[in-house]
From TrEMBL:
One Pfam family of this chain: GFO_IDH_MocA_C3
PANTHER family listed in its UniProt record: D-GLUCOSIDE 3-DEHYDROGENASE, UDP-N-ACETYL-2-AMINO-2-DEOXY-D-GLUCURONATE OXIDASE
Domain Gfo/Idh/MocA-like oxidoreductase N-terminal: start-end pairs: 4-121
Name of the molecule in the record: Predicted dehydrogenase
Organism: Geodermatophilus africanus
InterPro entries attached to this UniProt entry: Gfo/Idh/MocA-like_OxRdtase_N (IPR000683), Gfo/Idh/MocA_Oxidoreductase (IPR052515), GFO_IDH_MocA-like_dom (IPR055170), NAD(P)-bd_dom_sf (IPR036291)
Molecular function terms from GO: nucleotide binding
Lineage of the organism: Bacteria, Bacillati, Actinomycetota, Actinomycetes, Geodermatophilales
Domain GFO/IDH/MocA-like oxidoreductase: from-to ranges: 149-233
Amino acid sequence: MTTRIGLVGAGFIAGRHVDVLTSIEGVTVAGIADPRADRAEVLAARAGAAAYAHWADLLDVERLDALWVCVPPHAHGEVETAAVERGLPLFVEKPLATDLGTAAALADRIDAAGLLTAVGYHWRYLDTLELARELLAGAPARLVLGTWLDRAPRVDWWARQDGSGGQTVEQATHLFDVARVLVGEVEAGWATGSRSPDGPGDILDVCTAALRFDSGAVGSFSNSCLLPRAHRIGVELVAPGLGLWLTEHQLVVTDDDGERVVDRDVDPFEAEDRAFVAAVRGEGDDVRTPYREALRTHRLAVAVATAAADGGTVRL
Ligand SMILES: NC(=O)c1ccc[n+]([C@@H]2O[C@H](COP(=O)([O-])OP(=O)(O)OC[C@H]3O[C@@H](n4cnc5c(N)ncnc54)[C@H](O)[C@@H]3O)[C@@H](O)[C@H]2O)c1
């Protein structure tokens, strides 16, 4: 049986999903919606799909089995609500929204409908993350350092606070998600941030947080978007006799035997899409970040960003 998929948003990340989805046997990308009709048409042509200027028409016209929501952070809410009302399984790109309220309300609607969901925290599918988790099982992390030192992506919404929620919510959220997997839940913290006259848009262009986890581990998370290119993006962990440095591409392990580099063997974007398609078809249950679970990461990222902007204490 063919699985018919629709996409809302036809930008960068939608293109990556289309390339994966069209390579999966038995999947048809049926329609793609974007208010920028030119983008919808170009991506739809690549996928052999129909193009729509409004997602409501996509949902009304196509008989879909699942919807991928690939819109900027500020555009979440209405489309997910409409999908929930239709009982349509939802893959939603991170972050869930610019704020907490929109996402928390959607999580309640999704739970009430018992809807199958996944969120694009793709680091969860890294085989190197799994290896890190196995290594830490024998020696739990005591210290975690997360860094996202990068340039500002050149899309119009990104450097606007009301467009993206800021870098902590939009990008560093991946670091918080990895830390939750490898270290546990955050119970307290403090954060600060700042803007320079040369910074892009109206967002904080430097932000740093000190967090305490329920295990007693402590962490420090910093991000900046002032650089000309990606510089340092990943999570370092210190455990008794064990050091780890996890990036999107590899894991560096330091232990009594010396240092070794383990390259990833899995394309995490492909893995997350294949896992959700399998779940929609009732053939698999490897969805690693359903909406409710993603909300826990989003809550943390919003709490850190809010503390950085207004006075320090991270309120969870
Ligand atoms: N998982 C990852 O690592 C990863 C990587 C890149 C982007 N993303 C996320 O994906 C989202 C989109 O990022 P992008 O880089 O593709 O941005 P983009 O600007 O390239 O694309 C977004 C598209 O959505 C469209 N859009 C805006 N409002 C819409 C609406 N109401 N309905 C339909 N389409 C609408 C825009 O016209 C644009 O074409 C962001 O939240 C971003 O964080 C995730």
